[in-house]
Design a protein that fits this description.
The chain is about 20% helix and about 30% strand. The chain is of the alpha+beta class. The chain has a five-stranded mixed sheet, with helices on one face. A four-stranded antiparallel sheet has the order 4-6-10-8, with no helix packed on it. It has a two-stranded antiparallel sheet with strand order 1-2. β1 (about 50) and β2 form a beta hairpin. The radius of gyration is 26 Å and the shape is flat. The relative contact order is 0.17.
């Protein structure tokens, strides 16, 4: 028969397997919920807003402050950084290290992503700001964050960010000392499937037969 020590060892082994399984499920659920939770976080800090349709929008543009005012003379330096998850075989870099903008002034910045693998990959990004509360006033009019990006093997794409810093920041005494903001993006691979039409395109065979030549009609005599 089985001794009590052997039974105890088997019970301990079963408990360990259960805890390992529970831990793996927790990790999987955390990854799956990462983007929606991050959207909620950004909404709470003013870094964009969730619309009634479930899409992730951005705040409306605010006009610059009055010329000659204290707010009109204030400049803010915005730094850009980018990283990719270890499991994503992409290069992802900011095309400019920093941009200096005035309050209410619109600015355009670019990141560049390259798929270094031999297969098409869908990636998605999240972002954060330093200091985090800067998201209350740095508003993105156009951004690639949270949008899935399908990049072909060895393809490079430019990803724009069109943004402004709300002039209302000048009226918030908590931001009197802030003249520097860092905007950082992280890309990771999406678990979405490739679109069916893309798979059809991939399966298409390039023809070696040139298309027929069509003669242009001759002009009618005058």
């Amino acid at each position: 028969g089985v001794s009590w020590k052997q039974r105890e060892a088997l019970e301990n082994s079963d408990r360990q397997v259960w805890w390992i399984g529970a831990g793996l499920m927790t990790i999987f659920a955390g990854c799956w919920l990462l983007v929606p939770l991050y959207k909620m976080y950004c909404q709470a800090l003013g870094q964009g807003q969730a619309t009634a349709t479930g899409t992730f929008g951005h705040k409306e543009y605010s006009a610059p402050p009055e010329p000659g005012s204290r707010a009109a003379k204030r400049l803010v330096t915005v730094d850009f950084t980018g990283t990719v998850h270890d499991a994503l075989p992409w290069e992802f870099t900011a095309q400019q290290k920093r941009v200096v903008v005035g309050l209410g002034e619109t600015a355009l910045a670019f990141y560049r992503a390259k798929n270094k693998s031999d297969r098409p990959i869908i990636g998605v990004s999240v972002y954060h700001m330093i200091p985090p509360e800067a998201g209350l006033y740095l508003n993105k009019i156009q951004c690639f964050c949270f949008d899935e990006q399908l990049i072909n093997p060895n393809e490079e794409v430019d990803l724009p960010i069109f943004f402004f810093i709300d002039p209302l920041m000048a009226d918030d005494s908590r931001f009197d000392h802030i003249d520097h903001i860092t905007l950082s993006y992280l890309f990771f691979e999406s678990d979405s499937d490739l679109p069916p039409e893309y798979e059809d395109y991939q399966r298409a065979v390039r023809s070696s037969i040139a298309p027929p030549t069509v003669q242009a009609p001759q002009a009618l005599p005058a």
